[in-house]
Specification:
By secondary structure, this protein is of the alpha/beta class. The protein starts with a strand and ends with a helix. Helices cover 40% and strands 17% of the residues.
């Protein structure tokens, strides 16, 4: 069993220390561990070229054409059985390098898209060209958000954003730690409870490997959403609310000062990180062509004129 620790923080900084401590916990349970710090890695942003998906539909592996260190980290994630991801929060959310990696990793490892392509290849008799089996591997993940602020709402988007890491490939989130107040703490090693918490997170993630989801007990605060355990809720003016991380609907009720939100089993089963939830999105985006194609065809003669003012933007604004 291999547990990968990824730190998007400074070398030997707070995030490094907490991720490494989690790996100590994983190692105590017999896991082979590997630690990666990404700060010195060149991981550029997704440029939206679509080469990864178009190549995949042509029977090739889903490869990003940008030549940088993304590929090294991608392979390490694919080879891992479980992952501990830690990132510092500077402006409410994890650092940008984390999101750059997720933007490139997510679309290329979408579980529903992988399954659909695999089915197509088998239907065509391409048994010698299967989709990389690592794309279908069940992985388990723990998240560590690290912030300096004493006021918790200054790191409020840290953990919810970290959950984006595992959604597309259907990783099972086992637990999380919101390590804020680091400005007062000085160094994680001075907080024995925090160090013990990180170590236990590594243990819990390791012990979860191979277990069915329903047998895994969440490690961390329960949260409002029973799937991602975050407390974010989107209001739309009715008592039907939504978890913005999982995309599932719940019913809100108020009892005095207490607010309750309940999510049905049916809604939980279609959360973004499940195959059912990802399939919904896959069918949605693969249907774009049938909708947008006729619109573009009908407007083909007038589109050039409509777009010309945008091509001439620099000239028209001088």
């Amino acid at each position: 069993m291999k547990v990968l620790g990824i730190s998007f923080g400074r070398k030997m900084g707070n995030t490094d220390i907490l991720v490494k401590e989690a790996l100590f916990g994983a190692k105590s349970k017999g896991a082979e561990v590997e630690f990666v710090n990404t700060v010195s890695m060149n991981i550029g942003r997704c440029i939206g070229c679509g080469a990864c998906s178009s190549g995949f539909r042509q029977g090739k592996d889903a490869k990003c054409i940008i030549k940088d260190d993304y590929h090294e980290l991608e392979q390490k994630v694919l080879d891992a059985d479980a992952i501990i991801v830690g990132a510092p929060v500077y402006v409410l959310q994890p650092v940008g390098q984390f999101k750059d990696f997720v933007d490139r990793f997510g679309p290329m490892h979408d579980m529903a898209a992988m399954k659909a392509e695999q089915d197509k290849r088998m239907e065509r008799g391409e048994t010698d060209n299967p989709v990389d089996p690592r794309y279908f591997k069940k992985r388990y993940v723990g998240y560590i958000s690290v912030g300096g602020a004493t006021t918790k709402n200054w790191v409020s988007m840290g953990l919810p954003t970290l959950h984006l890491f595992g959604i597309s490939s259907g990783m099972k989130a086992v637990g999380e730690i919101d390590a804020y107040k680091m400005g007062e703490t000085g160094n994680p090693v001075l907080d024995e409870a925090l160090i013990a918490n990180a170590n236990t997170l590594g243990v819990k993630v390791t012990e979860a490997v191979g277990k069915p989801d329903e047998e895994i007990e969440w490690y961390g605060e329960e949260g409002t959403c029973p799937v991602c355990h975050q407390n974010l809720i989107t209001l739309n003016g009715t008592t039907t609310v939504e978890c913005p991380v999982c995309g599932i609907e719940g019913k809100l009720s108020v009892d005095g000062d207490k607010v309750n939100v309940t999510f049905s089993k049916e809604q939980q089963a279609r959360a973004r990180g499940t195959y059912e939830g990802l399939l919904e999105h896959y069918l949605e985006i693969t249907g774009f062509g049938a909708i947008a194609g006729p619109k573009l065809q009908a407007a083909k003669d007038r589109l050039p004129a409509l777009l010309q003012r945008y091509k001439d933007f620099d000239k028209l604004t001088k």
